[in-house]
């Protein structure tokens, strides 16, 4: 990819579509605290982009722990309205009061609001879409199987939203360890019948085949830079060397970014609407007895 957002890599038809209207992507990050979620989001949406934090609703930021931040990313005239929902401390062993409930409530609330807007004739044409298009689920680089807590959370989440499991802090594992950990995780995800994006939705996703072989993506986040030739790159520096975030030999960061920002950008939004939202809406209507 030549640009941070990779929007130029979109097929031309889609590119025109994006250019004509502003595009929105709502991402949620879930995982134990300290796994590098915040650092990773800063890395993913490089600050080289023109970034603007929009005003938040003071009521929501005070009352819920699950917190959305809004950004406007602009690249070559293409505007991507990005919402990143941070979920502090999930699964923190020392702090069990943080659990999946507020996260699921947030997800459901966005579906409910969309449903309400859909039923209101005045709003039909431009419903603000706050629904979560993907949950990036951070898994600790333990090398062992999926923890019970993670398995449960992934299972619950994957019934409601697109879930992309991610191995955090890839720089703490060797290539062999990463490979073996990936096999273990893939087996565990299958054993628990956990649906993940894009693998479980492959028929709906064009051009993702190549990316599939890197799943689950291992990532590195960093706030530091180094010079490689005359290029400034994000990295983590150790006594024994430098690990570059965007080097495909060091982590799957570039593949994940390509999936989110380019190859599957539309598919994430469409799957959210066609699969998850429709499921939620159907369940809700059945409950209401219609
Ligand atoms: P969060 O609680 O999940 O949001 O984690 P933070 O982003 O606050 O990061 C927690 C700590 O992990 C910080 O000291 C980061 O510098 C460090 N960290 C973040 N990403 C990485 C990574 O990819 N590799 C390593 N080794 N450390 C990281």
From TrEMBL:
Superkingdom per UniProt: Eukaryota
GO MF terms, alphabetically ordered: GTP binding
GO biological process per UniProt: mitotic cytokinesis
Keywords carried by this UniProt record: Cell cycle, Cell division, Coiled coil, GTP-binding, Nucleotide-binding
A single GO cellular-component term on record: cleavage apparatus septin structure
Septin-type G domain mapped to chain residues: 21-287
Keyword Coiled coil: yes
Family stated for the protein in its record: Belongs to the TRAFAC class TrmE-Era-EngA-EngB-Septin-like GTPase superfamily. Septin GTPase family.
Designated name of the protein: Septin-6
Residues of the full protein shown: 31 to 320 of 423
